[in-house]
Amino acid sequence: MKLDKIKEEKKKNKLVLLLKESDEVFANTIRRLIIEEVPTLAVEDLEIKDNSSALYDEMLGLRLGLLPLKTDLKSYEFKEKCKCKGEGCARCELKITLKVGRKGYVYAEDAQSADPKCTFAFPKMPIVKLLARQKVDLTMTAVLGRGRDHAKWSSGWSYYKKEPVLKIGKVADPHFVASKCSDGVLVLKGSKLEVDEEKLLDSNMLEYYTEIDKGITLEYTDNIIFTVESWGQLSIKDMLNQSADILIEKAEELENQL
Fold it and tell me: pTM for this one?
């Protein structure tokens, strides 16, 4: 298999790769491992000392659980695999406190983590809005988990598709086709249509263009466009490395059982 980087958008935590000499089975396996198996930290338990905000305790807990939490996989272990045998220690649990009594929005950055390396990924993500004399005072316990058990532990999103090749032949009305192109894939230069290759891979309207005019044809190569998006807990490199390690581990486990 050969791997080429097509596009990287660091601000969006997004990476697009081109897989050559591979197939959909492998791409889908990595996709599912990223979504379901790669472990991350997320808030699991909540001790609420005071909550006079407009949100019920359950709603506040739901929001906190879904906040992406930066994860250091070298420092934390699953509770069931920890030496404390699930009783809870600094190796398998992360304590985070949130105590705010001012009027206005409470943001993720207001929370104080016991581990400076593992804080909420997006500091300005709002949690709740407080009115005068309202406050929240709580302690969160975050643990490692997998997306297959709950979406809050999912490390990100991943999807793939075959590499498209859009060909422009003899088009009856180039101006009409260009007017129907809302994603910028087809560009009108003079009286001739051309394909913008940079926007081609992101388009979901290619089949539609072939229906507008028979001079436009669409084919697919054997290459696969593989997209990975991180929710912020892990870098995309860590997500891919972890998915590869998990795949190797599962393959070895299967081999041992045969």
Answer: 0.89
